[in-house]
Amino acid sequence: MPGWPARAAARGEVVLVESAWPEITEDAARPWAGRTVVVTGGLGFIGSTLAIALARAGAFPRILDNLDPLYGGNWRNVAPVADRVTVLVADIRDRRALRAALAGADAVFHLAAQTSHIDSMRDPFLDADVNVRGMLLLLEAIRREAPEAVLVNVGTRAQYGAAGNGPIREDTPARPTDVYGASKHCAEQYALVYHRCHGLDVRCVRATNVYGPRHQMKHGRYGILNWFVRLALDGAELPVYGDGSQRRDYLYVDDLVDALLRVAGGPAGELAGRVFNAGTGSGTAFAEMARQVVAACGSGRLRHVPWPEERRRIETGDAVLDATRLRDATGWNPRIALAEGIERTVRFYRRERKHYWPPAA
């Protein structure tokens, strides 16, 4: 169909440098050679890192991405494997595009979503249309075009909401504090219904705060650690709301991709129909994270400011995920500590700034 593949970066415009390749374990990469894999949102942050890892493992990634200018889709993200991926520029709500992308697929990783907490509160109908209706359209398309495919749905720690102190397990009740968390939880439940009622091989991963190379640097409405990297590299102030004592669990993107590949590549009898947390299990105070970003950049400065009301209303407090279930089922463990991950992220954007900062920046 027109636009499939849509575009590939020309040979010669890509220089492979350190951090161009995600670091994925052999166990995670082994099952993927020769398999056709659809990645929705595959030109974005996590999706592109996953697509690169799949291509390097010998898979044939098909990317579906609408390149919404407010989100993270970026042709540069897949430049290292531009000749090994196919791209369909289309929305997750486009039935015809879904059918074309899914035909003959062996696996699907669903990352296309509205991901801003703030935007979900400002326009809940758009959030629900993309995250919930989009999921239903995807499930129906899989049921018709690729019923044997493995579907990995990527959720979020926001599904738990304000879960209290201590690492959060998968059996912690979901009490989202914002529309985004609610829509992602609803989408996950639809996916599990299709597993139970239609026999689809669905596996769900709830990711904590993910950071690293290839994230959009246009605004700070989501991906706060990466946004702080931009502010610090620009020599600007990093706004820390309140005292910044709330603890967060920060996971480097390569570690998340390794987890997703393990969950998708393992046996259905052990993994289908299950939900897994992907997090480090270790919390870092928000203000401490910001200090580490400033130190790694060698510029920027913290500024403590009052909580804006629209953010205070949806704040969850401490949020640290317990990934014991994922470790026991797949052998996964995060490998990149926060300080090292921040250093890698800063090095990437120093080199790639012109491809990620808006033109006026």
SSE inventory with pairings:
Elements: H1 26-29, E1 36-40, H2 45-56, E2 60-65, E3 86-89, H3 95-102, E4 107-110, H4 117-122, H5 124-145, E5 150-156, H6 179-198, E6 201-207, E7 209-211, H7 224-233, E8 237-241, E9 247-248, E10 250-252, H8 253-265, H9 268-271, E11 275-278, E12 284-285, H10 286-297, E13 301-305, H11 309-312, H12 324-330, H13 338-356
Parallel strand pairs: 1-2, 1-4, 2-3, 4-5, 5-6, 6-11, 7-10, 8-13
Antiparallel strand pairs: 9-12
Helix pairs in contact: 2-8, 3-5, 5-6, 7-10, 7-13, 10-13
List keywords for this structure.
Rossmann fold; alpha/beta; disordered N terminus; seven-stranded parallel beta sheet; 361 residues; single chain
What does this molecule look like?
The chain is of the alpha/beta class. It has 13 helices and 13 strands. The strands form four sheets. A seven-stranded parallel β-sheet has the order 3-2-1-4-5-6-11, sandwiched between helices. Strands 7-10 form a two-stranded parallel ribbon. Strands 8-13 form a two-stranded parallel sheet. Helix 6 links the parallel strand 5 and strand 6. Mean pLDDT is 94; it is low at 1-19.
Integer-rounded radius of gyration: 19 Å
CATH class of the domain at 26-211 and 252-280 and 320-336, named Alpha Beta
The strand line-up of the biggest sheet is 3-2-1-4-5-6-11
| SSE order, one letter for each helix or strand | HEHEEHEHHEHEEHEEEHHEEHEHHH
Distance between the termini: 37 Å
From the 3D structure, determine the CATH topology of the domain at 26-211 and 252-280 and 320-336.
Answer: Rossmann fold
What is the strand tally?
A: 13
Major sheet details: 7 strands, parallel
> What are the segments in which pLDDT stays under 50 over at least 5 consecutive residues?
1-19
What would the principal axes of the Cα set say about the shape? Answer: globular
Share of helix, binned: 25-40%
Helix run count: 13
**Helix- and strand-based class?**
alpha/beta
CATH superfamily of the domain at 26-211 and 252-280 and 320-336: NAD(P)-binding Rossmann-like Domain
Residue fraction in strands: 15-25%
Mean pLDDT: 94
CATH architecture call of the domain at 26-211 and 252-280 and 320-336:
3-Layer(aba) Sandwich
